[in-house]
Design a protein that fits this description.
single chain; about 200 residues; alpha/beta; five-stranded parallel sheet; two-stranded antiparallel sheet; 8 helices; 7 strands; about 20% strand; globular; binds shikimate-3-phosphate
Length: about 200
């Protein structure tokens, strides 16, 4: 079981000095946290922060696919096509879900595959968290990132929005918790995820 120190909400601490009394140790009753959401939802940034807080390992599904295949995600899409990428993604997910004390950031399309959804559902002690934001905010965040041109799914924004609309319902369905991130900083989002999992 992981123990994490949670900051109490600001409303309960307004006139209290920042001391040990404002941080509460909380036990999380899961072995892994899986972050899902569309591109730009902050899965990797928030995931790394959560892992640091928990003293767990952070894993990124796209990075694992690239490490195993030796090509970038964009390279795999361009040379072998999306269906092949999805096969590599499913295989990498099955392996990584065997590990404990991890925070895993999924690629935005991973939950679209039924097999991946079943695997997530059937892996015990696994908390799936959806990081939600409106499409426009997500695209905006992605385009500001240095690797914007490397995201094959963003090449056609109309098609990307269609994918977003379909996936939004899937993310909501597979996640035990949904966190609306639009008005939250990275730290606030990570704290909210931990609060939800501790509650
Ligand atoms: C994809 C999202 C990407 C990556 C690939 C396909 C998608 O991951 O897996 O480019 O279908 O939405 P991120 O969500 O981490 O950008």
């Amino acid at each position: 079981m992981a123990t994490v120190m949670l900051d109490m909400p600001a409303t309960e601490t307004t006139d209290m000095p920042k001391s040990s009394s404002t941080r509460t140790p909380v036990a999380l009753d899961v072995d892994r946290i899986v972050l899902t959401g569309f591109m730009g939802s902050g899965k990797s940034t928030i995931g790394a922060l959560l892992a640091e807080r928990l003293g767990w390992r952070f894993l990124d599904l796209d990075n694992e696919i690239e490490r195993r295949d030796g090509r970038t995600v964009a390279g795999i899409f361009a040379e072998s096509g999306e269906p092949h990428f999805r096969k590599l993604e499913a295989a990498a997910l099955a392996t990584l879900l065997g590990r404990r004390r991890i925070v895993l950031a999924l690629g935005g399309g991973a939950p679209e595959e039924l097999g991946n959804r079943l695997l997530l559902e059937q892996t015990p002690r696994t908390a799936v968290v959806y990081l939600a934001a409106p499409f426009e905010a997500l695209v905006d965040r992605c385009l500001k990132q240095p690797d914007a041109a490397e995201r094959p799914v963003l090449a056609d924004l109309t098609a990307a929005e269609r994918r977003f609309k379909t996936r939004r319902r899937i993310y909501e369905r597979i996640a035990g918790h949904s966190v609306e991130t639009t008005n939250l900083s990275v730290e606030q989002t990570a704290a909210t995820v931990l609060e939800r999992l501790a509650g």
